[in-house]
Specification:
Blueprint (H helix, E strand, L loop, with lengths): L1 H23 L3 H12 L4 H9 L7 H38 L17 H15 L3 E2 L5 E3 H4 L10 H5 L13 E3 L5 H12 L6 E10 L10 E11 L4 H16 L5 E8 L2 E10 L16 E10 L1 H7 L7 E8 H9 L6 H4 L2 H7 L2
Parallel strand pairs: 1-4
Antiparallel strand pairs: 2-3, 4-5, 5-9, 6-7, 7-8, 8-9
The protein binds zinc ion.
């Protein structure tokens, strides 16, 4: 009988001790440890159960009932405390993840398109809208495409004036960094004819070019857009019409233009193209040196020798062509004083000018 009473007392003590411990658990993990300590396979309650085996047959059921009651009480308490603790943990998590909408935002620095690339895109798009095909050529060229086929023979003074970067000047057939985008004219026309087609052919060729030159308005690497068209009966009037449309569209204003006779080896006749000064509207200012006009590009009718070099019948077909400096037009449009700003990569400048 004494054993029975002793076990009962042990069970009661255990229950109180366990419930107290559950009440002090700080979190779900603590509570799980306590569950193992009291109700686990090697837990305190299990140890007490081992004592039950020594009892007489009639005492066992009574103690068994008692053990189950304690077990139920502890299980209930574990559930209750457990759900309270997980609710608390969730609240703490929400509190920790709360966003303070009154805090100043972190600045996100978005990239911009470089102003030169932006200009190149705008210019190319204007010609593409007029129906010109976009074409590109290699930046490393041979003398034939860069000079000979463009009516600039070896002895020609213009060849020396181009300040060419040769890659291996002493080689039999030296390669060079193209000094203009005009070689794309030659390559595109040849390819076009080789595919069995006949003009009309209208092409815009944007790209990088290289000359050994560096100051406020010159950079050893700069960008050109080459534009040409070949068809039957093309004249200076077509050239002027395309120029007028392009320049007024690019500068987004009605600009007077004028063609001033000039000389280029690859066009005949040739003309420098001026626009009415965008800064003083033709009144005369420091930038246009009081003339009211600003030179923007070189143009002309494709020289018959150039047509012949690619195998086009210069009697039946004529063409016009012009090449413009992208940096120069972007500088004029946005009033940028120094070409070197484009390549110094000062992010303040690029962010202000870029798109
Ligand atoms: Zn002016």
């Amino acid at each position: 009988m004494g054993d029975v009473e002793g076990l009962k007392a042990q069970l009661e003590e255990l229950k109180v001790e366990a419930l107290t411990a559950f009440g002090h658990a700080q979190n779900v993990a603590d509570l799980e440890d306590l569950r193992v300590n009291y109700l686990g396979k090697k837990g305190a309650l299990t140890l007490i159960l081992k004592g039950v085996g020594k009892l007489s047959a009639e005492d066992r059921p009574m103690i068994g009932q008692h053990v189950n009651a304690v077990k139920d009480a502890l299980s209930d308490a574990l559930d209750r405390v457990g759900s309270a603790l997980s609710k608390l943990a969730q609240q703490q998590r929400i509190e920790a993840e709360r966003i303070d909408v009154t805090m100043p935002a972190r600045r996100r620095i978005a990239g911009v398109i470089h102003p030169v690339q932006q200009g190149l895109n705008e210019m190319t798009a204007i010609f593409a809208h007029m129906g010109f095909d976009i074409s590109e050529g290699p930046e490393i060229e041979d003398e034939f495409h860069n000079f000979d086929a463009l009516n600039i023979p070896e002895s020609h003074p213009a060849r020396a004036m181009h300040d060419t970067f040769f890659i291996d000047a002493l080689a039999d057939a030296p390669m060079l960094l193209r000094t203009h985008t005009s070689p794309v004219q030659i390559r595109t026309m040849k390819k076009f004819l080789e595919s069995g087609q006949e003009p009309p052919l209208s092409v815009v060729a944007p790209g990088r070019v290289y000359r050994c030159d560096y100051d406020v308005t010159h950079s050893p690497m700069f960008h050109q857009v080459e534009v040409f068209s070949v068809d039957r009966g093309l004249s200076l009037a077509h050239l002027k019409g395309v120029l007028q449309h392009f320049l007024t569209t690019y500068f987004e204003k009605d600009l007077p233009i004028r063609l001033r006779p000039h000389y280029f080896p690859f066009t005949e006749p040739s003309a420098e193209v001026d626009i009415g000064c965008v800064f003083c509207a033709g009144q005369g200012c420091r930038i246009c040196k009081g003339s009211g006009w600003i030179e923007v590009l070189g143009s002309g009718m494709v020289h018959p020798n150039v047509l012949k070099a690619v195998g086009i019948d210069a009697q039946a077909f004529s063409g016009f062509a012009f090449g413009l400096g992208v940096e120069r037009l972007v500088m004029l449009k946005h009033g940028i004083p120094d070409l070197r700003l484009f390549f110094e990569n000062d992010v303040r400048f690029l962010r202000r000018m870029g798109a």
